[in-house]
Amino acid sequence: MTLKIREEAPTDAPSIKAVTIAAFLHTPHTSHTEQHIIDALRLAGALTVSLVAELDGIVVGHVALSPVVISDGSAGWYGLGPISVLPAHQHCGVGTTLMYAAIDALRLQEAQGCVLLGNPCYYERFGFQSYSGLTLAGVPPEYFQALFLGSERPNGCVTYHPAFEATS
């Protein structure tokens, strides 16, 4: 079996939705709207990076990156998420491969950095760290993390794209 990471194709939308629903089905601390967020980002033209993990022609994972706004005006920052892997393929390196591919895609775009909301024990291996200069309202600071790809260190409150409010 060969894992292939590639850009999303228009025909991948139903598979991405199915993977996302399955990946978050039994996850606590979620509103289970991740698939709607991806659809809304796509519709708004705000999916800066949308990569799928394909195993023998079947989509088994997906990662989305979209622009974020930082209150100090810093440009070139993105939010990573949702990232999804079918439960049967979790703990097999699919998510790790998607993460590295997403970070590489941001580097190619000369992004200044990336933020995400997630488990610090998992994401620190990719270089993410909590940083007191960036905050996300209502989120414990240890779970909101940043990866610096440029030399600047912004300071401010981060706002995700309005698509993150999608519920259907």
Polypeptide structure, described:
The protein is α+β, with helices and mostly antiparallel strands and 168 residues long. The protein is 24% helix and 30% strand. The chain has one domain: Gcn5-related N-acetyltransferase (GNAT) (Aminopeptidase, 3-Layer(aba) Sandwich). Helix 1 packs antiparallel against helix 2. It is globular and about 45 Å long.
Question: What keywords describe this structure?
Answer:
7-stranded mixed β-sheet, 168 residues, Aminopeptidase, alpha+beta, globular
Residue share in helix: 10-25%
Low-confidence stretches: none
Trace the largest sheet across and list its strands.
1-2-3-5-6-9-7
Overall average residue pLDDT: 96
In CATH, the topology is named Aminopeptidase
What is the string of helix and strand elements?
EHHEEEEHEHEEEE
Taking the sheet with the most strands, its summary is: 7 strands, mixed
Shape field: globular
Corresponding CATH architecture: 3-Layer(aba) Sandwich
Our measurement of the CA-to-CA distance between the termini, rounded to an integer number of angstroms, reads 35 Å
From the alpha-carbon coordinates, what is the Rg to the nearest angstrom? 15 Å
In the CATH hierarchy, what is the class?
A: Alpha Beta
Number of domains: 1
Q: Find the CATH superfamily.
A: Gcn5-related N-acetyltransferase (GNAT)
- The structural class is alpha+beta
Give the strand content: 25-35%
